[in-house]
Amino acid sequence: MREKVYKSMDGNEAAAYVSYAFTEVATIYPITPSSPMAALVDSWSADGKKNLFDQEVRLVEMQAEAGAAAALHGSLEAGALTTTYTASQGLALMIPSMFRTAGSLYPGVMHVAARTLGTHVLSIYGDHSDVMACRQTGWAMLASANVQDCMNLAAVAHLCAIEASVPFMHFFDGFRTSHEIQKVEVMDYEDLRDMLNWDAVEHFKQNAMNPERPKQRGIVQNPDTYFQSREAVNVFYDRIPEIVEKYMNKVNELKGTNYKLFNYYGADDAEYVIVGMGSVSGLVQDTVDKLNAAGEKTGYLQVHLYRPFSKKHFLDELPKTVKRIAVIDRTKEPGGREPLYLDVSGALNGVKDRPEIVGGRYGLSSKDVDHAQIKAVFDNLKQAESKDDFTVGIVDDVTYRSLPVDHSFQIENPKIIQCKFWGLGGDGTVGANKNSIKIIGDNTDMYVQAYFEYDAKKTGGITKSNLRFGHEPIRNSNAVTHGDFIACHNQSYITRYDIVNEIRPGGVFLLNTTWDDATLAERLPNKVKKYLAENDIKFYTIDAVHLAEEIGLGRRTNTILQSAFFKLAEIIPMDEAERLMKEFAKKSYAHKGEKIVNMNYKAIEVGYQNLHQFDVPAEWKDLTVVEPDVDQTLSEYVRNMMLPITELHGDDLPVSAFKGYESGYIPLGTSKYEKRGIAVHVPRWQPDNCIQCNQCSFVCPHAVIRPFLLNEEEVKNKPEAFRTVPAKGIKEYEFAIQVDPLDCTGCGNCIQTCPAKEKALVFEDLETQLPEQKNWDYAMTLSHKENPMNKFTIKGSQFEQPLLEFSGACAGCSESPYAKLLTQLFGDRMYIANATGCSQAWGCAFPIAPYTTNYQGFGPAWSNLLFENNAEFCLGMYLANGQQREKVTMELEKVSNAIDDADAKKAFKEWLDNFNEGEGTRERSDAVIAALERLDLDGEALEAKNYVLDHKAQLTKKSFWMYGGDGWAYDIGYGGLDHVLATGADVNVLVVDNELYANTGGQSSKATPKGSVVQFAAAGKKTAKKDLGLLAMSYRDIYVAKVALGANMNHLIKVIKEAEAYDGPSLIVAYSPCINHGLNKGMMYATQQQKEAVESNYWQLYHYNPELIKEGKNPFILDSKEPTKSYREFIMSENRYASLLRRSPEEGEELLDASEEDARQTYERYKALAEDK
């Protein structure tokens, strides 16, 4: 018997670990939340880890999930055991190939972190809608409920696929299980080797396609034989339950488990039984225990093997005493019943004394499920008439399907310590807590669990880390709501969110704050004070912000706060905890260099040494709590939808709140009401130093710093603290730069960009700048003024209102300034088709709309469909607009032909003659509308006039933009993009190129340069970056450019102007440094990094204008100069390159030399193009 090994890991790692053993080839494509599985496989392979065949796994990243599924099928066809990892829309893209793989009886395996499919909206969170869409593909389907299941049943999936000659899908709940960390017993590869049917492996390989034993597959069959041949497969599926049972028993014998196809838990004589699968299982089992202890007769039947669904095994496990069954599905099928319910109903057909069956839905899109909801399902079964087709966990006050829930029903094990940490995305809180739970799990005899909640705002959003540990197994799968220890890592949260009410009486609360005791007593809301006092909470503070700055860690407070947690939690002796934390710090940060490791060592030391206990005054118990009034002047949407959700009360909204928004529509311009106040430092304007260049506004990712022009009346009425100076070159106005402190993220790009000899902007603590909010509010009331400058200049563009503001983009984001600029130039008439990715995540995180309207109510029409088909989606909008404008043109010509009014005819002719001209289209359209409105017509002319006025929104020439990242344009969407560009349609493309898949965590794309260390290229990417621009230029009728905002702002504006005006397709590729690059100086220098990228020839600037061909000129203009800075020094300023030399010095040197040579050759190629006569 081999020694048992335990390790703390999440579900993704558990599944990946086992899959690696059985995998020869892995074909993958990144998608949240499954990407970590493939990233781990890639990393292990790069490190030389061996599978059961004594080889490293050969992993290939495809251009899309459809490609990954096809490559999986091809690899299986040629005789290699092949695996893939996916979720959600990615899984849906694989379905056509899945049918073929199952039909070919190949032993492929896919591990799925089950995630919601996009419907009326996109959701990245977990349920079973994706896997249930695959139930008829012929893949066997095996469900895991927790991390240990992921380890054990992943093995069963691979073993059974090989022996059964049928592909297996092993799935588990996305985020809830995929990202949950538990201590698990690790499978030994030698045990897996012993269990593997090597004869079946050899049979598979000997029957694979090979010219040495040729045969033909993929044939076409006629109606006379298809039906029969399809039924011939039955024997393979009939034996799957027996094979799965066999390997489950092998695991049971090895590990002491009790896996069955269906596991029953509860009273032997149960009368009421729930049937379900996935992460809800532990909650149901807890509830069954509590109810049965009170004398009830309940049970839970957990499904492991979902396909094929074995009626025999189901009935064998179901107690014969059952009177009623509730089948709970974590998916919704509109207009029909859910899959598991149908399967259970079918299994009970013909059963004597058939129990009554009801079904319902729960936990869609990772909605938290607790014991009270499970009890509500059991309570429903005990009613005289049980509600069928129910929902639980929401309030349905529209179709009345929801079950009432008694929230006082709770199951808490006092032996389990529960903790919760509120963090800011990107501050390291989640990473530190992953380390903390592993330290506890791997160095004590405790059971552990960690589950992490994220919002959609990327870095800068709310994170919640739920940690549990104790000496008994932990089955809870719900969020911590009664914690022994709660920490708030961001000061702004304590005045906005209900945090302390999640602390149990006598518990510990830690607040990271810059406030001293007096300020704390002044600023804490009465609601917080009262709860702390009434519940005897031990209250501690620490100023991790300034401690981190003193050490040199900038915003990264995570290690300091981790140290404080270990000191207060007293789980491990502090000296031992310090040693273990330092070991993990070295492991976590070694790839970033010794300096970063040592800074984290220092952070650990100061963390536990700088805690301060705040004595909670007893009189706080007597404080009066008054809930703030909601401003009734706000729109209904903001009052009743947006504010409750941003205050984290979205779970409380009933179904009726979404009446009118069922299709996923939301109004524009709501981000201005959020006021997150998450910055530590914000810029302060120093007017005496300002040269009024407006570059600070130009580079701001969130539109929180803007220039304003004030007339005499506005200067007279301004607040006393509102500072202005005479506007340079604009005599009638005063000039001001105003900062919005509560919407600022404190990135500092404005400060670094300021070209003034003495900086016109300096950083100050947010607290000192809060009075500026009043000045910002005043600035928002200033009158609209026609731009006194050319908007196609750096300075002039910033006098245009940005119609993208206060988005959820990362602090220092390089993508959003490009989009913001587009809205300033064309926003009142632009369509935006936004590819799935970062720009979609920060551009439409419900309920916030950062795109907004101008003073006339016009603004961008923004929408997203999917990742892979954004170009085609945009083309569809373009075609629809063209058809409708053509109709308006026909009707306007009817009016023109029927009148003699010279002024009206002139207005109509001006509009018709400039039909496709964007600049001036608003004015020409307004003139047409005014002329029509004054015409007195009848008959057909009147009908035509009314038609044009009813459809006047079609008069302006619209500007169509498809916007997305390199993952879309270079990879998954390239085929569609290429096709749309080839149509000649007058559409524009802006690709924000950060050279990796940023939204899914930093995976390689075909835009990733050689030598870059990213996920799926852990040893450095071996191939060169794709040149998207050159490919587009081969058509010769596409306007193409490469730009970098920080390198040359004038070039950027010129290119955008020309591209939009060009009557045909345009493609602009924009360099966008990303937090995933690991900039040594941080994202505060992202704009400067773009400049240095061009100066070192890492990135080149050019534009290709087909209009010049008509003039007999060279259409290609190289706008970059010869490099003036070192390429190697530039790339070594980013960890994605520097880490390569730390990992593989010799190979790294070769790769980075080759990368520099690629850049040199690219520049020489461009020079040759520019010199071509």
Automatic annotation (TrEMBL):
Pfam families: EKR, Fer4_7, PFOR_II, POR, POR_N, TPP_enzyme_C. Its cofactor is [4Fe-4S] cluster. Binds 3 [4Fe-4S] clusters per subunit. Transmembrane segments: none annotated. [4Fe-4S] cluster 2 binds at C700, C744, C747, C750. Keywords: 4Fe-4S, Electron transport, Iron, Iron-sulfur, Metal-binding, Oxidoreductase, Pyruvate, Transport. [4Fe-4S] cluster 3 binds at C810, C813, C838, C1074. GO terms for biological process: electron transport chain; response to oxidative stress. This is Pyruvate synthase. It comes from Aedoeadaptatus coxii.
